């Protein structure tokens, strides 16, 4: 998606450990117009799938997921992050290791927001090593519902997230694919 790539080129800052900072339009300040274009693009890419709900993880997945839900006219549920949980009877939970924060969080979704016939689309801001997506897939499996696809705003193709998802044969679409962040430079996949 050219609009998104242009924005990453203009405003993206490469941090140590292969982290791309895009907090001027996605991870802190949010550009609603750009996110609406992102949402419409996902709606187009997954138009042929029978999707009843969008799932994401708080907090940076919420903006692109809500815009996708708006474009698809479907509800959005975000998994909440907790350090630890004691009462989990009414929740689906999974452990997620955070690449950027280097900590493990539990993510959870209230059982009442997942219905038996749900067929979901996962949306997230970044795909790095695939831990956030794996956590959502654990919850989806536990809830015994279908996953129709995964939409990622920015994929770092040099990390192992895509391989994990392809192994499970789940359709994956990324709107910007970064091949390398070496020497502080953003190189997109050609
Ligand atoms: P994964 O679980 O795929 O390893 O990492 C995905 C999550 O980590 C994303 O939801 C995002 O919050 C965060 N993340 C991973 N890599 C980056 C990055 O380069 N920049 C930013 N801003 N967040 C990242």
Automatic annotation (TrEMBL):
The annotated pathway is: Purine metabolism; XMP biosynthesis via salvage pathway; XMP from xanthine: step 1/1
UniProt-listed Enzyme Commission number(s): 2.4.2.22
Sorted alphabetically, which keywords does the UniProt record give?
Answer: Cytoplasm, Glycosyltransferase, Purine salvage, Transferase
- Chief site of localization: cytoplasm
Sequence positions that bind xanthine: 20, 27, 156
Q: What class of enzyme is it?
A: transferase
Any one Gene Ontology molecular-function term assigned to this protein's record: xanthine phosphoribosyltransferase activity
Q: Which reaction does it catalyse?
A: XMP + diphosphate = xanthine + 5-phospho-alpha-D-ribose 1-diphosphate
Localization of this protein: Cytoplasm
Is Transferase among the key words of this record?
yes
Q: Which InterPro entries match?
A: PRTase-like, PRTase_dom, Pur/Pyrimidine_PRTase, Xanthine_PRibTrfase
- CDD domains from the xrefs? PRTases_typeI (cd06223)
At which positions is 5-phospho-alpha-D-ribose 1-diphosphate bound? 128-132
Spell out the SUPFAM superfamilies in the cross-references. PRTase-like
What does this gene product do? Converts the preformed base xanthine, a product of nucleic acid breakdown, to xanthosine 5'-monophosphate (XMP), so it can be reused for RNA or DNA synthesis.
Assembly and interaction partners: Homodimer.
Tell me the protein family, please: Belongs to the purine/pyrimidine phosphoribosyltransferase family. Xpt subfamily.
The protein's name: Xanthine phosphoribosyltransferase
| Species annotation | Pediococcus inopinatus
Q: Which gene encodes it?
A: xpt
């Amino acid at each position: 998606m050219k609009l998104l790539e242009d924005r990453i080129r203009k405003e993206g800052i490469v941090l140590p450990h292969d982290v791309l900072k895009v907090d001027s339009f996605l991870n802190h300040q949010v550009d609603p117009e750009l996110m609406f274009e992102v949402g419409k693009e996902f709606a187009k890419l997954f138009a042929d799938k029978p999707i009843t709900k969008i799932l994401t993880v708080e907090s940076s997945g919420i903006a692109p997921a809500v815009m996708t839900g708006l474009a698809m006219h479907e509800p959005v549920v975000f998994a909440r992050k907790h350090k630890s949980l004691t009462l989990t009877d009414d929740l689906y939970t999974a452990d997620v290791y955070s690449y950027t924060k280097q900590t493990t969080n539990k993510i959870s979704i209230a059982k009442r927001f997942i219905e038996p016939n749900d067929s979901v689309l996962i949306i997230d801001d970044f795909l790095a090593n695939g831990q956030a997506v794996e956590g959502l897939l654990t919850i989806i499996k536990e809830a015994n519902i279908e996953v129709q696809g995964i939409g990622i705003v920015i994929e770092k193709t040099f990390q192992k997230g895509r391989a994990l998802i392809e192994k499970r044969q789940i359709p994956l679409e990324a709107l910007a694919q970064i091949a390398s962040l070496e020497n502080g430079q953003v190189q997109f996949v050609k």
